[in-house]
# Entry
Amino acid sequence: MYHFQLLLFREVIKPSQNHLLLKSLFLGGFIKEDESLDEAAYRILHHLTGLKDVYMKQSYSYGKTDRDPGARVISTAYSALIKIQDIDRELKEINGAHWQSLSRLPRLIFDHREMVDRALVELQMQIKIKPVGFELLPEKFTLVQLQDLYEAIYQREIDKRNFRKKILSMNILEKLEEKEKETSKKGAFYYKFNKEHYEKHKRNGFFFNLDVN
Amino acid sequence: MYHFQLLLFREVIKPSQNHLLLKSLFLGGFIKEDESLDEAAYRILHHLTGLKDVYMKQSYSYGKTDRDPGARVISTAYSALIKIQDIDRELKEINGAHWQSLSRLPRLIFDHREMVDRALVELQMQIKIKPVGFELLPEKFTLVQLQDLYEAIYQREIDKRNFRKKILSMNILEKLEEKEKETSKKGAFYYKFNKEHYEKHKRNGFFFNLDVN
DNA sequence: CCAAAAGTGTTCGAATTACACCCATGA
DNA sequence: TCATGGGTGTAATTCGAACACTTTTGG
# Structure
């Protein structure tokens, strides 16, 4: 059972003039005249982390007048899911960034805590009805990894047999011959998400729904 | 079985310079320096319709650069649910406004069709897990009215017995002595939504979930 | 008295849950 | 050989779906 982590940045930009309050910050930036909201979100993520092709979704727009004491700022928040494999490879040398467990988050400035909470709730709803979980895993993953992921998101334990029964009955996973041998002597089979199968089933009225235990 | 209607306004404001494209428009306006997004949404709704205290929810922010050919505009859409009883009383004399069935919508300008579609999908998800349906009904309503509402939102028929069984078992409705006698000789008992019961149950881990048939 | 709408229970099958042991292997 | 983590089946229960008749009353 692992936990979700939030990537925090320290003073990457300063929309606020009150420096004492600035304890931690998300990725942030200002939109340009010639780019869409989505493009701006991708640009900022890519510019500050080097990450590309990640699952990213608009979350919510925050518009209280006093949310940033330094200036009137309206922020449209996006949440990105980063593949576990990409994290260390790409983010090691980013200055001032550090991962923080969601359950032991420091005090965040402004309304950033609300942003995190809302994004997490959205994720928990999304993941029940859409296979977004696979965005967080490497191409090849074991069922144990997949279950660990779901346990982290739901913040509770799931029965192994029921979880496997349900996910496998959907026929959207492809079992590989290869085994992951790092974490156990026996080894666990790799699977991969078969997007074509998923899309085909969906056209036939199939609904992804992973609500286990 | 009735249908959802969208209230359309004609040229209330003109963010576009291309008048030929302007066929219909939602309520819209610009945010002021000293108000939040929520406040602006309420102000605009109230100013243009006279309606107050309606259920209103942020939907999504639209930010494509070319979405309005006349100017760079980022729009945060809100959707409001208006009580059936309030509609005629307050909206009769609004100039240029007319109701249009959602299933026979005219061509809308810009990305407004996407806005409607997204808002409807959000509503359909919301109404399954939150008792927002009551926002659309008068204080006192019959179970038939409530069911009609759900059938309109889901766009399908629901079994009467199963619907009543489910909604009544939640213990969030209060049966009144009074009957509605307009639509039938026998008359149908009025109910009202008991918000306190709902909040109390929710604290005890109860989840509203109305997914019938 | 009858048409029209409101109201009411039961049965069946499917889906979800709970639950415990064997397997493979490297050290 | 044994400790460690991976993998598997079945029974009990709950939940959702299907289904048809009785009640009330104004005209």
